[in-house]
Specification:
alpha/beta, TIM Barrel, eight-stranded parallel β-sheet, binds 6-O-phosphono-beta-D-galactopyranose
């Protein structure tokens, strides 16, 4: 649809930015923090681990001051479960909880809305060693963790996200399961238990803090058929249902997506429901949806000849395609980042329209951004016109989605500051703020505003009227 006058971004739009705990905090073993699965991460030579990250744990006040200078209306961060409960269950680590108390106080003092993710890829190691999410006891532990968070922080945090990218943890489980890669039946049981855990937290928050809002934060994207061959269209529908809709259908409709369920039956990986699960899933209703959007995917009908599964261009660790379901296709209309991630701003509009049409809930973009090898110039500046261009084109499409009737309440680019990429170390930078360190040398850790910082500040000041 073409609009002569696209609607403006609404008043109160939450211009924000995102991070996650294990990717920014560092202080991996300080002040009583327990280990998480990410602390076991052993990267390839020349790539950093998560031990120091951006040292946000020790720079928190300075970082929040920079958020205030940028003019952020919202900051989406995650809480490290093993910092709050070192064993994932049982004893609470007061020093860890106090860190988030101070962070939230600092945000509120600067009128920045805290948007807290309860679990972002960093399962406490003690729980992982007892079977992780496949073990139902982890659901009980999450419930107790949720109670601790809501009791302590619920007076100030009014926007919660339960689980980050549950779908990615099923589709690309490598980074979350150190030491052992589970088979599909176990992954789908992990996922089911995460659905139940989210539902319990949702019901609990609504009971304790009726004024607070909570939702999931999956990675959602429109999937294109490579051609109008009906077989390609079915393949695209397969993958969109299995990869995306299933996760929002369970959260919003309280039942599995029928196409995804048929897939699970065919593959022998339907999860075991405990008594009461179906009722619980049906009862818990999210208030809004977090959507992490990076790139669309284009798929074709599978050939079923042993070649359907292949590594994604630019990232050998990410396998795509599945016999009988879909194979990865090409899309001549789109370009990619230097890391091989597809750039598709219009695809974001399509994604938002589809999510809005299916679920009719407010949407917060919880992640979207460009990973690039930024360089600190001799003049002490970081020039990142490519990031400005990337975000400008996505913001334009967000505005068109709003004109289409999507109830988009905010946009939190990934990431506020440089941080450790999940797979590709520190060289792959996403932030508005450059951190003076590299893969192996911790250097000064100075915070340096990139060109995109000044640009985004102006976007926020004009509420998106000047992009
Ligand atoms: C999302 C994760 C983030 C972040 C981002 C960028 O999937 O939720 O934690 O890592 O992707 O990905 P990467 O770090 O692999 O470039």
């Amino acid at each position: 649809m073409f609009y002569r006058h696209p609607k403006p971004f609404p008043d109160g739009f939450l211009w924000g930015a995102s991070t996650s705990s294990y990717q920014v905090e560092g202080a991996w073993n300080e002040d009583g923090k327990g280990m998480s699965v990410q602390d076991l991460h052993t990267p390839p030579a020349g790539i950093t681990d998560f031990k120091v990250a951006s040292d946000h744990y020790h720079h928190m006040e300075e970082d929040v001051a920079l958020m205030a200078e940028l003019g952020l209306k919202a900051y989406r961060f995650s809480i490290s479960w093993s910092r709050v409960m070192p064993e994932g269950d049982g004893a609470v680590n007061e020093a860890g909880l106090a860190f988030y108390d101070r962070l939230v106080d600092a945000l509120v003092a600067h009128d920045i809305t805290p948007v807290a993710t309860m679990f972002h890829f960093d399962l406490p190691l003690a729980l992982h060693e007892r079977g992780g999410w496949a073990n139902r006891a982890t659901v009980d532990a999450f419930e107790r963790y949720a109670l601790v968070l809501f009791e302590r922080l619920g007076d100030r945090i009014k926007m919660w996200l339960t689980i980050n990218e549950q779908n990615v943890m099923v589709i690309h489980p490598n980074a979350m399961n150190p030491g052992r890669l589970p088979e599909a039946p176990e992954l789908y049981q992990q996922s089911h238990n995460m659905f139940v855990a989210s539902a319990k937290a949702t019901l609990m928050l609504h009971e304790m803090w009726p004024d607070a809002k909570i939702g999931p934060a999956p990675n959602i994207t429109a999937i294109y058929p490579q051609s109008c061959d009906p077989a390609d269209v079915v393949a695209a529908d397969n993958w969109e249902s299995i990869r995306c809709w299933n996760y929002l259908d369970v959260a919003c409709f309280g039942r599995y997506n029928p196409i995804a369920w048929a897939y699970m039956e065919e593959k022998g990986c339907t999860p075991v429901f405990e008594e009461g699960d179906a009722e619980l899933l049906a009862a818990a209703k999210p208030d809004y949806l977090g959507v992490n959007y990076y790139a669309t995917a284009t798929v074709a009908a599978p050939k079923n000849d042993g070649t359907d599964r292949a590594a994604r261009a630019g990232d050998q660790q990410v396998m795509l395609g599945e016999e009988g379901v879909y194979r990865s296709g090409a899309n001549d209309h789109l370009t990619a980042t230097e890391y091989g991630w597809i750039i598709d701003p219009i695809g974001m509009r399509t994604t938002l329209r589809r999510v809005a049409s299916r679920y009719g809930l407010p949407i917060l973009i919880t992640e979207n951004g460009l990973g690039a090898r930024d360089t600190l110039e001799a003049d002490g500046r970081v020039h990142d016109p490519y990031r400005i261009d990337y975000l400008r084109r996505h913001f334009e499409q967000a505005q068109l989605a709003i004109s289409d009737g999507v109830n988009l309440i905010g946009y939190c680019p990934w990431s506020f500051m440089d941080l450790v990429s999940t797979h590709q170390g520190y060289g792959k930078r996403y932030g508005f703020v450059y951190i003076d360190r590299d893969e192996e040398d911790i250097r000064s850790m100075a915070r340096i505003r990139k060109d995109s910082f000044a640009w985004y500040k102006h976007v926020i000041e004009t509420n998106g009227a000047e992009l």
